[in-house]
Design brief:
Shape: globular
CATH topology: CRO Repressor
Largest sheet: 3 strands, antiparallel
Number of strands: 3
CATH class: Alpha Beta
Structural class: alpha+beta
Strand content: 15-25%
Helix content: 25-40%
Order of helices and strands: EHHHEE
Distance between the termini: 34 Å
Number of domains: 1
Strand order of the largest sheet: 1-2-3
CATH superfamily: CRO Repressor
């Protein structure tokens, strides 16, 4: 299993092919790249691909405060 940043995956495969491999539209992929979403593509051993978005927990806006864990 290999993790690849979405932008790098698109550079190698092109946006149209990358979108087909991830089973999403090219428009959705283009928007994710344009707004800077932090998405990793996972290349599975069987040749399939999936994607995971990396977000802070809990999902907060930029102006939010840090949470202390006891």
């Amino acid at each position: 299993m290999e993790r690849i940043p979405l932008a790098d995956f698109c550079e190698v495969h092109g946006q149209t092919t990358a979108a087909k491999k991830l089973n999403i539209t090219q428009g959705a992929l283009s928007k994710a790249l344009r707004i800077g979403r932090k998405v990793d593509v996972i290349a599975h051993c069987d040749g399939s691909f999936s994607a995971e978005e990396i977000k802070p927990f809990p999902s907060q806006s930029q102006g939010s405060r840090d949470i202390e864990v006891a």
